[in-house]
Design brief:
Order of helices and strands: HEHHEHEHEEHEHEHEEHHHEEHHEEEH
Number of domains: 2
Largest sheet: 8 strands, mixed
Distance between the termini: 51 Å
Helix content: 40-55%
Structural class: alpha/beta
CATH architecture of the largest domain: 3-Layer(aba) Sandwich
Shape: globular
Number of strands: 14
CATH topology of the largest domain: Aspartate Aminotransferase, domain 2
Strand order of the largest sheet: 2-9-8-7-6-3-4-5
Length: 434
């Protein structure tokens, strides 16, 4: 072609999905794959309850569920969500402060692409891949990050965050993912209030991804951005993919806090809305379902059972992996992921795991023959040797080598077996080069 038309992605790969291509090669040879790479409760065997399906069937009788809705979203649903925020009384919003998108990935993409190219959002490290890719594609430069510390329960390094905000004038906003993906860390209220203080002190806005805000356990609970934001401009991102769960609905929204207080922030929100107008609106049906599902008499009990299941699995995984000397493991308290970090000094490019199938062994050895991260090398060997598919931690933009797995398996015995296999293979892999 006349010009190079592809925008640079800085070599980044969405490894959560990319590793599926590798796993599918194993499936071609009859290998059963245990999918621990993606946070889809339905794919992992969660059955949608009959009452929830009946709610959707009832909505489908309404012709409006087949139609376009207003660009910002279904008015009744936006009012329902605004009322939920206002009931807590810390900050007040109107339905006009809520904008729906086709999943949070759509909201994230538009939020970053609506910023000036030189404006940057500082984000946690490790960070969820969708935020990372959107921020890097927006700016065509590596992101600014503040570290989550695995030696301190994955709590963020607040001193580093403030120092970077002070030093880098291009930083205009702070991203917080609470509960965190990939670590499962639940931020303390004190930490969140300090982050709000930093935003106020340096005239920034806040972006809180609160996708998992109602999925906490082990005695922890989340503090909502709306409860502590005060007069700082900010956005809360929420969705139904994980909470209902309905990932295939592609339904998420942003709640805009303190609109009208800052002209620059208002122009930014208007730029997001203008982009949204270009596709008319988001999917109508799931929006119409939100008030009916969230207020259904069966919903709280349904959610409680799910959360207790994640709590049990978090303990099972933690108790198995915590005693492996070469791993740093923290028990997650929110979302449904567990992240383990390798002792980096114990990794090298000579380590391997036995793979019985000759073609699969050749395929994996070809993949690891290139210069790749040490944790990615382990993940490929684990997949080829056992069929267990996890995600390398370095794919979440961190230098810490490790892996992320989910807490979604419905069969607890199968889950325990899978974690024990992972633990055994970690030890075998580390010792393979001695």
């Amino acid at each position: 072609m006349r010009y190079d038309i592809a925008k640079s992605g800085s070599g980044l790969v969405y490894e959560i999905r990319n590793i599926v291509n590798v796993a599918n090669k194993l499936k071609e040879h009859g290998i059963e794959v245990i999918w621990e790479n993606i946070g889809d409760p339905v794919q992992k065997g969660e059955h949608i309850p009959k009452w929830m399906k009946e709610v959707l069937a009832e909505i489908l009788q309404d012709d409006a569920s087949f139609a376009y809705c207003p660009t910002k979203g279904v008015p009744e649903t936006r009012k329902f969500l605004a009322d939920r925020v206002n009931e807590r009384g810390k900050v007040q919003i109107s339905p006009e402060d809520i904008i729906f998108f086709n999943g949070l990935a759509d909201a994230i993409a538009r939020a970053y692409s609506s910023m000036h190219i030189d404006a940057r959002i500082i984000m946690p490290e490790p960070t969820y891949s969708t935020h990372l890719l959107a921020e890097v594609l927006h700016a065509s430069f590596p992101p600014n990050t503040y570290r989550m510390n695995p030696y301190n329960g994955w709590a963020p390094d607040i001193r580093e965050l403030e120092q970077k905000v002070k030093s880098h004038k291009s930083i205009v906003g702070i991203l917080v993912i609470n509960p965190d993906n990939p670590t499962g860390h639940v931020y303390s209220q004190e930490t969140l209030e300090h982050i709000v203080y930093i935003a106020r002190e340096y005239d920034l806005f806040l972006v809180f991804d609160e996708t998992y805000h109602n999925i906490t356990y082990n005695g922890k609970s989340t503090t909502f951005l709306s409860d502590i934001i005060g007069d700082v401009p900010g956005i809360s991102m929420k969705g139904i993919s994980k909470e209902i769960p309905w990932p295939g609905s592609r339904c998420g929204w942003i709640e805009v806090y303190n609109a009208g207080r800052d002209n620059i922030f208002d122009r930014y929100i208007d730029a997001i809305l203008t982009q949204k107008m270009s596709e008319v609106c988001s999917t109508t049906l799931p929006q119409m379902a939100i008030p009916k599902i969230f207020t259904h008499p069966e919903y709280k009990n349904y959610q409680s059972k799910r959360i207790r299941h994640y709590e049990r699995l978090s303990s099972i995984a933690y108790n198995i992996l915590e005693d492996i000397p070469c791993l740093i493991v923290n028990r997650p308290d929110g979302a449904f992921y567990l992240t383990a970090v390798f002792n980096e000094a114990l990794l090298n490019n000579r380590q391997s795991l036995p793979i019985e199938h000759a073609e699969i062994r050749q395929y994996i050895e070809k993949l690891v023959g290139a210069k790749i991260e040490f944790d990615k090398r382990f993940v490929y060997y684990l997949l080829g040797s056992t069929g267990v598919c996890v995600v390398p931690l370095t794919s979440f933009f961190t230098s810490l080598p490790g892996f992320r797995m989910t807490l979604l398996e419905k069969d607890e015995q199968k889950f325990e077996y899978t974690v024990r296999i992972i633990g055994e293979k970690v030890v075998e892999y580390i010792e393979s080069s001695k």
